[in-house]
Design goal:
alpha/beta, 4 helices, globular
């Protein structure tokens, strides 16, 4: 399941997660973001060892600023509240899984 991440729930669902976190920063108008979305959903359903969330950069401007988002799509991998990897742009599901490093 992919969870919608907002300013309000970020602390509880991301920073307090016992699992590694994959965050998909996207916008509804972004073509490559829409192409990436099915892969993110598949990863969420297949990987119970991973918490997967999405941040709409247009709706969650403060979160986008906090992560210095300047280009999307951007996948951010976090462990123990720290960013451990960023995957910029469109990638296949296989490439994403390889880049996760988990």
């Amino acid at each position: 399941m992919v969870v919608k991440i907002t300013d309000e729930n970020f602390e509880s669902v991301v920073m307090n997660s016992e699992k590694p976190v994959l965050i998909d920063f996207y916008a509804t108008w972004c073509g490559p973001c829409q192409m990436l979305a099915p892969f993110v959903a598949e990863i969420a359903s297949e990987r119970e060892d991973l918490f997967v969330g999405k941040v709409n950069v247009d709706d969650e401007i403060e979160l986008a600023r906090a992560f210095n988002i300047v280009s999307i799509p951007l996948l951010v991998v976090m462990k123990n509240g720290q960013v451990v990897n960023k995957i910029l742009g469109y990638h296949t599901k296989e490439e994403i899984l390889k880049e996760l490093g988990l």
